[in-house]
Each structure stands twice: as structure tokens, then as C-alpha cells.
Amino acid sequence: MVGDSQNDLNKIKNRGRCVPAPVSAWAIGLLLLLGCRSSWLPERSLEDVASSSEAVALADLSSDELGSRDPIEVSRNACTRAEKLRADLDPRCTAHYLAANRLAWKTVNHASLADDAQRNLAAELYHESLRGLIESAQQFGQIDPIHGIRLTTEEGEVTIPIVYDGFAWKPEDFNCWIPVDEYQDEHLTHQHRRSGWGVPLVVLRQRDQQERFMIPQLPFAATAMLRNLPVDGDRKSDEATPNQVLEVFNPLVHSELAKDDGGETPLAADLSAPIAWLNNNTPHLNYEGFMHPDRLHRSGQLIMLEPYQPGKIPLVFVHGLASDPLTWIGLINELRTADWVNSRYQVWLFGYPTGRPFLRSAADLRRECGEAIASFTKTTADPALHRSVIIGHSMGGLLTKLQVAPSGTSLWKSFAKRPIESLQADPQMHDYLSELFFFEPSPFVERAIFIGTPHGGSPIADEWIGQFASLLVSRSHDFSDEYDAFLARNREAITPFYSKHIPTSVHMLEPEDPTLQAMRQLPLAPHIRLHSVIGNGHKMLIGGPADGVVPVVSARHHGADSERIVETTHRRLQSHPDTVEEVLRILQLHLDEPAENSAPQPQLAEGLTQSAIR
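That's the Alpha/beta hydrolase family protein sequence above. Prediction below.
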């Protein structure tokens, strides 16, 4: 489960408190006061203004009404007053941040009020006050993502409406707003930021309990701008028509901001912050899933980083041994910088307990993808779903191979000496073995990328360290008992490798493993395009050139459309710059080439659905 947004203040600071929508009684915002302009307001600093109504009224003054007062100084004082009120846990601070922001905006946009130096200072105050406004509104429960930022003043309740632009998310998905602060993440090669107008945000979205393919708290990037714009949409008759609106942009879609004079200016963004937040606030299950695979709530789970978007091609990432989906954040962080990737692909992650035999996890992957796609196409077909690209690192590449090749009978023959129908097994065991050893290629996958995949096994699995690692894997007592009972009735029919106990995933990576050898000989489905990325940065005593875990000769796959050798180690391979470059090349190639499998093959789709039901 994803942790609280304040778990790691050194990474992404959140001085606001995240609360679920709808928000608390500090309701409805600031704009009823727009009719309360007054030229008789005494010339005093906002340091002395305690009333949120007075703060807004002063901010509404025209340049003539400001008289000799410096709007920059008035804005700064409003910001200072807001900070003091906030330190006292006084929710009126939000109104003072708004006052400071409106004055700064006027200074930036009106030549009569400012020279260039003033504009630069006003721009700093604008962003400082907007950050404070969002943080305090979050802290005091004043953000209603559907209706706007709602405030209570002495004059009544008023609202700053919110307009969203470019998101697949719905307004009700914006559950917690975190302005981005300084952060570090050693797993990210770069922090992809863009200078410009607006305050970059990490927005947290709470999962609905009915949703299957989302994590409990999912972060995504946004950029907020507060400015004078008309607002479309129905408004209640008792609400004032505002002259300000909070615009929230998707920085993966928008890089420029339209100006009032018709031009454009850069939109600020931080594309890496949500990825860093996810990495630093999500429990890593790499060792738990390896050593205690049966403690996880599911055998394997598909995770989406955005809502399903028709027309976008699924890009499915499958991690390797003693790892978890977060191992992909480095590569995903780099892919996010390509606009064409964001507009044409949607990222799916598959997580699974890596201590279990990978045949089981491969079956889970087939089931999860099949059920996800079936749920998205109940009423409308989507050809993009049948062009999926799947990327597997290390053992995840073996799961990938089992999505793009038919099993035939060779896998079963690596396990048993007799046909499955002749074995003595109860219906549950029969269905279990059938799902593992008999399948067709996924009708949804069109291209596969193997990254450091041990098609021929790894010498490490045979060595003492591999044997020791296997001993660390705890076995399921319930299923071990069932398998032992099955063996007792069929021991002579089972090949030696499987005749004693259920092998761990490490055992199945031994070069002499019969199932691994059979897998390597499986022919790919005719429509599949295959690519290999192979590490060559660390020689091994056994196996020759390698990435330190997988020899080059083991990582090679016959019939690959391309092969890229990268001088790095196994651990660094999936996020190495050369790997990023190669993945981008392949993804562009996938878009340029005509679809090979744009429509599902009925017999394959039916077979997958039947497998999922079992």
C-alpha cells in the first residue's frame, strides 16, 4: 500500500495535509467580495490586516487606488501575513495568499505598474503566493476538486473555480495536491524539469475500492496557474461569477501556456517528481516477493499508471528475479520526456512474487492482461490494445517469451513422461497444470523486447550462491501438500527435475533445467517482432562475456529482429542510456510499421478467456 504523502520530507516536501474529498467546512471561496471594492481603505500594511475580507478588498484595488503604495511591497506583506496566520493554524491565511497573488499578477501584466525588475520580483511573489495558497487550501480542507477552492470570509462564502486541461483523470481524482519541492532519488538518472509559469504539482489519486488495476494512492504530474480567465460551465445562481480561475494543466500534454495578448509562454513542469514520490512512498516488495511469495495478496497483478485511454498502445513492463515494478522507474522517467510516447502509449506494470516458478507467473500475466483488455472492450473495440508491446528484464523476459509463443507439447514433456489426461490428479491440480503448460500466444501482443534475459539460464543459479538463494524461498504449505499428494500418485510419470518438490524460480534458471531448454526452442507466433538488449559489462568465470549475471550467449535469441549490446551490468541494464535509446527506437519503429495483429484472432482470444476462467 502506498504510504502517506509526508513519509519522506527530504524527497518531496508536503506542508499541506492530504484529506479525502469532499472537503471540510471551510467551504466556498472568495469572489463575493469582488463587489466590495473601496477607495477609502486606509493606507496600512497588510501586516496589520487580520480580516480575510479586508485582504481581498485591498488586493482588488486598481493602480490609481493603490496611490503611492508599492504593489510589490503590499503583495509581499500579504504573503508575510499569510505565513504568520498559517503558522497559527488560521485558515484565513489562504485569503491572504490570494491577495498577494492577485497583486503580483497585476504587476506582471500591467506595464504601467512595473518595469522589468519589478516584473521579475512580482513573478517570484506570484509563484510563492500560489504555492502557499495551494498548500494552505490543502492543509485546511478548502479544495473541492469538482467545484473549486472554497473559502469562508466575514462577508460570506465564495469559490475560486478550477479548470482541468489535458488529463485522462476526472476532477474527483485530484484528491491531494502537493507543490513540488526539492527532492533526490538515486534511481533516476535525470530530474526532468521545465522552467516557466505555474507551480508544478504531484497530485495523489485515491483508488476506488472497486478498481482492480490501480494502486491505493497513485501520483501524477500537474501544473497550476491562477489567472484572469472566463470559465465555461454551469454555475449556481447564488454564486458570483469570478474573474479568476485556477487552471490545472497536464504537463505531459502541454508545454506552452497561452498568454492574454495571444502569444505563448513556457509552462513550468516537473515530470520526474511523481515517479520519485511513487518510489519513495511505495513499499518495495522485491525481497518479500522472492523469499515469501505466498505472503502477497495476489499471485500477480497488473498495475496502470493512468486510466485506460482508448487508442493508446499498452506498454507492459515485466520485472525480474528479486525485483518489483519499481525497478522500471528509471526507464519510465526517461520515456516520459518524449511527447510522442506520452500521446501514443500507456504504461502498464506487472508485479509478481518472484520466488514462485515463473511458469505460474507467466500464466498470471496472461490472465491479467486478458481480463484487463476484456474489461476495457465490453462495448467498443480498440485496435490499439492488439498492438501491445511487452518489455521484460531478466526473468521477466522469460515471462515475456511465454506470452508470444505457443506451448505446443514440448513444455509438458519437460515436466511429465505421459499425457496429462493419463495422470491421476484432482480437477484443481489438473486445471493448474493445464494453465501452466498449455497455452497459445497472447492475441494482444505484437512486439517483445528482451532486456538481459537468461534464455539459456544463468551459471549463478548452479553455483552455491544460487543454491543458497533457493533455500531462502519459503514454500506454500497448502500447495506443497497438494503437490506432494500428486507426486505420490504419479512419481514415475514425472521427470526427475520435478519429481521431488516444486522448484523455485532460481532452480528453473539453471542452464540444465529441462523446461528452460524447451522454452528456448519454442517458435514465436508469426506476427511477433522481437528485439534483444544484452549487457556485456562484466565477464564471468563461467559463460564468457556477460553482464555479471546473464552470459551474452544466454541472452541471445534466435530470430530476433534486432540486437543491441550495452556495456553495463545486469542491475543497470534496463535504465542505461543506450537501453533507453534502443527502446525509444523500437517504440518509434512500432508506430511506423503497419499493424500485424490489429484484430484479435477468435480462437486465441477464446483460449485466453477460458484460461482466465480456470
